[in-house]
Amino acid sequence: MKSRVISMLGLVLPLLAVSAHADTLGPTLDTFAVLGSTPVVSFAAGNDTITGDVGIYSAASITGTFTLNGMEYAGDATAMAAQAGLTNALTVLGGLASVGTSLTNLNVNLNPGVYNIAAADLTGTLTLTNTLDVTDPTWVFIGSALTSSGSVVMTPGLFDAADAGVFWDISSSATLSGTFLGNVLAGTSITTTGVTDSCGRLLASTGDVTFAGDNTISDTCSVSTSGLSGGTVTAPTPEPGTFTLLSSGLLGLAFLAFRKSRVSPLI
Fold first, then answer.
1. Which of 27, 55, 108, 180 could form a disulfide with 79 if both were Cys (CB 3.0 to 4.6 A apart)?
2. DSSP 152-215
3. Rounded to whole angstroms, how far apart are CA atoms 174 and 222?
4. What's residue 234's pLDDT?
């Protein structure tokens, strides 16, 4: 009995004390700069330049004229696997909402962290900085909708952006224009009306991705060779009450086992 309890403590307590870490974009998704679901990924007859793969699943329609520095996958197994990776990434990011800080104004300077932004409208400048000197800094924005006509920029020289992560977890749709940084993971659809200097990805889970105007989308860039998909996403640790109850129960079992080992059996 004693050895069993000690074994249980050795297995469970480290899980309670250490946060879980997970890669946000898996290998099936991180090569895609643009991914849609249905009915179409459509490009206007403009000057759209995409660096990275373009795909769609479960539909198989990619239309319009654009410059592609990558591969195109329409309705095939590669695009299907990418959509599965997107579903997983949305689950990982959505699980962080409970530890997020509410943010109603995006026109600010922000250190790494998780931010709940509701239905956000970015019209000014959001500056990502790292005055706390966080290793592998990550910014996660969780909202129901996103409209951005302003700018998302990074403070230069404060950290190695190649190891940084910027993720926008939007449960419905996003409409983007202007200068934008980060990976947009939308539950429904994404529309662009002229995105410049983009470093990241546009990934739509159940709807379409529609391009209007001239857009530059890249999963690798001078700011970040990973397309800002680095960093570390940390799952929340158990609530203090959960930790107290579970650890108290385990310690109680250990105490009973210890007493039993000290008491001689009656003859």
1. 55
2. EEE-TTSS-GGG-EEEEEESS-EEEEEEEESEEEESS-EEEEEEEEEES-EEESSS-EEE-S--
3. 25
4. 53
The Cα–Cα gap between 161 and 33 comes to 18
Over the stretch 220-234, which tens digit does the pLDDT of each residue have?
887 788 888 988 765
DSSP character at residue 30: T
Q: The whole model's pTM is what?
A: 0.80
Note the Cα 182 to chain centre separation in Å. 9
Q: Strand, helix or coil at 83? A: helix
What ranges do the domains of the chain cover?
21-234
How far is Cα 244 from Cα 38, in angstroms, rounded to an integer? Answer: 47
Reading the block at residue 198, the tokens are 């983009």
Q: CA 12, CA 173: separation in Å to the nearest integer? A: 40
With contact defined as beta carbons under 8 Å apart, do 4 and 260 qualify? no
Pairing type for strands 21-22 and 233-234 reads: antiparallel
Choice between 249 and 217, residue whose per-residue pLDDT is larger: 217
User: What's phi and psi for 55, nearest 5 deg?
Assistant: -150, 165
Tokens read off for 194: 């002229």
Task: Retrieve residue 157's tokens.
Answer: 């020289």
In the block, which residue shows the tokens 């403009």? 46
Note whether 174 and 156 are within 8 A (CB): no
Number of H helices, E strands in the chain: 3, 22
